Amino acid sequence: MKATIVGGGVIGGGWVARFLLNGWDVSVFDPDPDAARKIGDVLANARRSLPSLYDRALPPEGALTFHESMADAVSGANWIQESVPERLDLKHAIHKQIQEHAPHDAILGSSTSGFKPSELQDGADRPAQVIVTHPFNPVYLLPLVEVVPSALTPSALTERARDILISIGMKPLIVRKEIDAHIADRLLEAVWREGLWLVSDGIATTEEIDDSIRYGFGLRWAQMGLFETYRVAGGEAGMKHFMAQFGPALKWPWTKLMDVPEFTDELVDLIAGQSDAQSGHMSIRELERLRDDNLVGMMRALKKSGSGAGGTINSHEATLPTPDFVDLPVTVSRQVPQSWTDYNGHMNEAKYQEASSQATDRFMEMIGVDATYVASGGSYFTVESHLRFLEEVKEGSVLKITTQVLSAAGKKMHLFHRMYKDQGETLVATSETLLLHMDLNARKTSLPSRAVADCLAAFVQSHSGMPPPEGAGRYVGQSDRS
Ligand code: NAD
């Protein structure tokens, strides 16, 4: 699959990374001679953060090319994403140029923050091909994309756009009726307007306004949004009670409504000066990395509960391919996230254990000890493990773990994981683990179900002819490594 990105600035660069890291070939058209360098910087941040959201490896990256002619750039494209500056005349001219050369069945998405699709379609050669696909910065991490069709957009095109966006890990929100600035930016505008007034009236500095968000409601919004948060705020009496309590306040003069402070030189200087004082000690790239690391941490927390953006990651992860295995099952194939490395610049020892534990969990699924089995009251608990650290592993390495069953009988299961980097070329660690089957209700050891025992027996049989792994049975302090 091929995507063409027309306009490779802040947003276009993010789209490049989103498609490329999900295995698409990407061509770029942007007359800025510095575009390749800027996109390279965005890609470096994306490679560091996006794979960290997942416990499975993303597909191999596609090929990235830059083109001076629009015809070359859009040739054979399945998706064309326009992200040029927010001017309607410019967007019209660029869409005309794109449609002269693009395949007729390609989707032409516009990143516009404010224009309605009918405005973009007006005067176009093939209006039905144009749709608004409005993302959020950083496009490679934030899943939301507002998909806005107009009355003349065929529903088949909207559905195809939705499916493609889901396949690259995004959360398409179909906007049912076109409106200036779609949904999210209308909300953001309201907050931005109030923020400007609070600075302009000398009530708060830029930092105090940011604090009022990030220490409080900003944390709530990321996982429950506005209405679910308020439902909870209503207590046991719920939403109706909340509305009765706070509804009348909407009529009080708490907000400035549609008035906007004039952008005088004084106000612009005041805001820019306060912003420098607040954040000027960090470069934009440093701030982006800080933002990305925090987003990854928060999104991984949401992944655990499946809330909001975490649910999108889980659904996407389930579609990522699991590697084939020849002799031994591959139980982990994942990239080492930046958060797994420590002050020595390599993977922290606890993370070797975490990866081994993921391998054990995956092997348990393979023998039928999955979520349903656990819910029915059975599971395996680890009672002993021994890790050998053989090689350093750096951020971004793709880890592969294979699992060999050394023995399994009755309640016991004895596993040996080999952890590799460099496409399985270099052994970086081994982990030997003994597990016992448990009755989760009685909290006592017990025999596994017949189905699980049979499945395990099949692995034992297929692994029985293999030589015992080098390093199996070792204990701490042995001087001889052989
Ligand atoms: P930007 O200024 O960072 O990037 C615009 C890019 O378009 C530049 O690289 C520029 O060289 C290129 N460009 C200019 N003329 C061109 C042409 N004729 N052909 C090809 N490329 C051309 O702007 P941005 O912030 O990335 O915004 C782009 C679009 O995305 C706008 O429609 C904006 O509303 C929308 N958007 C922005 C944000 C945001 O937070 N910045 C969020 C969502 C959507």
Characterise the protein shown here:
This protein is of the alpha/beta class and 482 residues long. The chain has three domains: 181 residues, NAD(P)-binding Rossmann-like Domain (Rossmann fold), CATH 3.40.50; 97 residues, N-(1-d-carboxylethyl)-l-norvaline Dehydrogenase, domain 2, CATH 1.10.1040.10; 141 residues, Roll (Thiol Ester Dehydrase, Chain A). Helices cover 42% and strands 19% of the residues. It contains 16 helices and 14 strands. Strands 3-2-1-4-5-6-7-8 form an eight-stranded mixed beta sheet, with helices on both faces. Strands 9, 10, 11, 12, 13 and 14 form a six-stranded antiparallel beta sheet that branches. Helix 1 crosses helix 2, helix 9 crosses helix 10 and helix 12 packs across helix 13. The longest helix has 22 residues. The radius of gyration is 27 Å and the shape is globular. The relative contact order is 0.08. Bound molecules: nicotinamide-adenine-dinucleotide (NAD). The site of nicotinamide-adenine-dinucleotide has 23 residues, from helix 1 and strand 6.
Cα distance, first to last residue?
48 Å
The stretches of 5 or more residues where confidence is low (pLDDT under 50) are: none
Q: What structural class do helix, strand and pairing data support?
A: alpha/beta
Instruction: Provide the succession of SSEs.
Output: EHEHEHEHEHEEHEHHHHHHHEHHEEEEEH
